[in-house]
Amino acid sequence: MKNILFGHTRVLSMALFLAGIVAILSIAGPAAAQAEFGIAPPGALDGISGGPVGGGGAGMNALQGLQNLPPGQQPFPGGGAPGQFGGFGGQPGQIGGFQVPAYQAPRRLQAIEGQRIFDAISYRLNPADSRILDDPRRLEVIEEEKSGFSDDGRTLGDREANDGLWSRIIEPASTDEYTGGLSHFYLLRIINMLSAAQQMNPLEFFGLNALTSERFSKIEKRAEREADRDDRIYQVDAEGNFRDCWSKKFLDLFRIEQGNPHSDFFPLYIPQPPPPPAVQPPPGWLPPQAIKTGVEAQIEQALNLYRAANPEGLTEEELEDRIDELRGELLDDEEARNEFFRLYGIEAAPPAPGGGFEGGGYYQMPAAGEFIGA
């Protein structure tokens, strides 16, 4: 009996405790509970309208009313103003109170890079008047790349310290590595002339009237004259050195190692292409020359649909060949082009004034009276 009474007492105590909490909340009003749990009072949302926001309407008045609620009663944590992401506060340009960094293009620096290249042939003949094939070039580099350059006036060929021109110049200049286009042109001409001379008939080469192959004839022997012709053009001694011959006289200047008949000739110098821009274009960017417009763009659109459908069931390689073939046909045949567009739901572009079509690359003849002086 004692245990039963004790149990009833515990239940009664808990009931009285809960009733007391309800009474306190009723007396204090809903504002205390709202402040305690951080929620907006039910009446705060009553003025929100389903109509458009702005122009002093009910929706804007309701939003302004929500912003003016005291802390702890705002419907969104952080009390964000309209236009802020998720109502998390912060100024425009911020997300959730965190500053969004604005894009800044990399800082670009002026630089000079390369090596002075002389034509080896003209330098051998006259160093003071030799031809320059290439020189260090101006370019732009970004801040992160300047570690490979110098602006101290002492290293990497830099001429003046702290002048803002970063240098990476190869020194000394190249004087015995390459030949220019003019010297290379003469080299090829001389080689061709010597080769043609070596193929000449000995009668023409020596200006003779007759030659014979008879061993005991008094007429000059053909074999001897052929050997004499070859020796005049190219002849070396037992040690492999040039004798006085045309190859030494006319070609030795062009050899890397003069006097060595097995030495290579100076290679032709090919100038380096212009440096790429310091800041690369964004992905997907195309130069204006590569952008197709007008009918060409429509043809590419239709061919892309054809490629995706692959109605003939071709292999990938066969499909690309077929597309190249179709591209030419569609550019040349307007009737076939319109029919192809109709199959793929593309509206044909109107013809351009004066003939041809917009973007088709066709020359448009001027109308009568448009010629200068007409």
Question: Helices, strands, pairings?
Answer:
Elements: H1 2-28, H2 30-37, H3 58-67, E1 94-95, E2 98-99, E3 108-114, E4 117-119, H4 120-125, E5 132-134, E6 137-142, E7 165-169, E8 174-178, H5 181-198, H6 202-206, H7 222-233, H8 246-251, H9 294-309, H10 316-332, H11 334-343
Parallel strand pairs: 3-7, 4-8
Antiparallel strand pairs: 1-2, 3-6, 4-5
Helix pairs in contact: 9-10, 10-11
Structural write-up:
The chain has helices spanning 2-28, 30-37, 58-67, 120-125, 181-198, 202-206, 222-233, 246-251, 294-309, 316-332, 334-343; strands at residues 94-95, 98-99, 108-114, 117-119, 132-134, 137-142, 165-169, 174-178. Helix 10 crosses helix 11. A hairpin with a 2-residue loop joins strand 1 (94-95) and strand 2 (98-99). The protein is mainly alpha-helical and 374 residues long. Among the domains are: 25-76, no CATH class; 108-178, no CATH class; 181-254, no CATH class; 288-343, no CATH class. The longest helix has 27 residues, at 2-28. It has 11 helices and 8 strands. The chain starts with a helix and ends in a 31-residue tail after the last helix.
